[in-house]
Amino acid sequence: MKTPPDGRRFNVHGLAVHLQARCPDLQCQIDHIFAPFVGDDSAGQIVTAWGSVNAFDPAEVFRCVSSAARAVGRVDDLAELYRLGERYWLVDDRWGMCQLDLLKHQWRSWVVPHRTLDAVRCVEAAVIWPMAQLLKMRGLELIPAVAVQRDGWGALILGPYGLGRELACLIRSGFGAIGQRWTALAARGEGVQLLPVPGQSEMVPWTWTSPDADVQPAWIDLAAAAPGADGAVCRAVFIVEPGRRAVTRGRTLAEADAARALRRAWPMVELPPGRRRPRDMAAALARQCRCLSVQLSGRAEDFVPLVESERKRSRDIHKIQLTLGAGVRDHGRQRLISAPHVHAGLRASLYSSSTR
Q1: How far apart are alpha carbons 287 and 143 in whole angstroms?
Q2: For each successive 10 residues of the chain (356 residues), what is the average pLDDT?
Q3: Got the DSSP string for 47-95?
Q4: Ramachandran bin of 295, using left for φ above 0, alpha for ψ from -120 to 50, beta for the remaining angles
Q5: What share of the chain is helix, strand, coil (3-state, %, to 5)?
Q6: Which residue from 192, 317, 294 is spatially nearest to 248, judged by alpha carbons?
Q7: What b/e sequence results for 221-234 when a residue is b if at least 16 CB atoms lie within 10 Å of its CB, and e otherwise?
Q8: 184 near 141, Cβ under 8 Å?
C-alpha cells in the first residue's frame, strides 16, 4: 500500500503505525497522545497498522458499509459492533463510525460534525481502540487501564469507572504514572511489561449531584507533574469492583480465581467476540502477578496504603527468594555455609517482613 502524502508514521513501542488525520478539532488531542512516538526509528519498518480519521461523509461511508454485515455484540451500552468476514464496523451515535479490517491491518473512522463526546473520548474511540485491535495481533496490547510504578515495581489497575483522584494521590505519594487512561502491555523477558501511553485523567469529584446537573469532566495530565515513568514489569494487578464502599479493602485471589476475574474485568472486547485465546494477556497476568479484588471507598487517599503495602510485600518476597537462591548456589559450590546459617537468615528476613 502506498503511503499517502499527508500521513504521519509513528513508532509505537517498536511497531510502525501510519495515521492520517483530517479532523482539525481532534488534532490537538491526537498530537498529545502520539508525541512520544514521533521519530525516525520506524522509517525502515513494515507498517503494522494503517489508520485514518476523517469528517463524516455520507457518500464515502455508504460505499464502505455492507448490507450483509451482521451484529455481533456491543463495545459498551451505546456502541454496536457489526461483522462481515475479517471486517468490522463500530457504530456509535455519540461520535460516528469506524471500519476495521483485520486482514489488511487498517482502520478508517468518520466523525460526525455534532458529536456529543469530548475530544479525549472521541480520539480514544476513533483512533486508539481500532489501533489497539491491530497492534494486539503483533504482540502489543493496549487496554484502557491505569498503571503505576515505583522503584521498578509496576502495578496495573482495572476499574469500571475513572480513577483520576486515586491516581493523583498515588503520584503525590511517590508513584509514577505509566498510563492514566490507556496502558500498553507486552510479554518481554521476565514477565509482562507495562509500557507508557500518554493521556489525561478525568477529575470528577465523588459527590452526589442531581440527575439534571451538567457535570463537565476536567481533564488533567497528571504525568506532566511527575515525569519519568518509562515502564516497569507488572508485579500486581488491582481489579476494582463496581461501586464504592465505606472502607477500602483488598482480597488476594488464587491463580484460577484471578484468571476468571481478569477475563470478566478485561476492558477490551475480543475480535471475534467470545473467542478464547490459549495465551491471552489476562492468563499471563494471572500466572505471573499477584491479583487483588479491591473495593474502593469515597476517600481516594485510602487506596495509597493498600498499593504501598502490596509493593513492600512484593519487595520482601523478592529478598527472601534472593536469599534462598544464594544459599542454593553456595551449597552447590561447596562453600562453608551450613544449613543453620541459611535458615537463620531466612527466619530473620521473614520476621522483618512481618513486622513492617
Answers
A1: 19
A2: 65 94 94 88 76 94 92 89 94 96 96 95 97 93 95 95 93 93 90 94 64 65 76 95 94 94 92 67 92 95 96 74 54 47 46 45
A3: EEEEEEEEE--HHHHHHH--TT-EEEEESSSSEEEEEETTEEEEEETTT
A4: beta
A5: 35, 30, 35
A6: 294
A7: ebbeeeeebebbbb
A8: yes
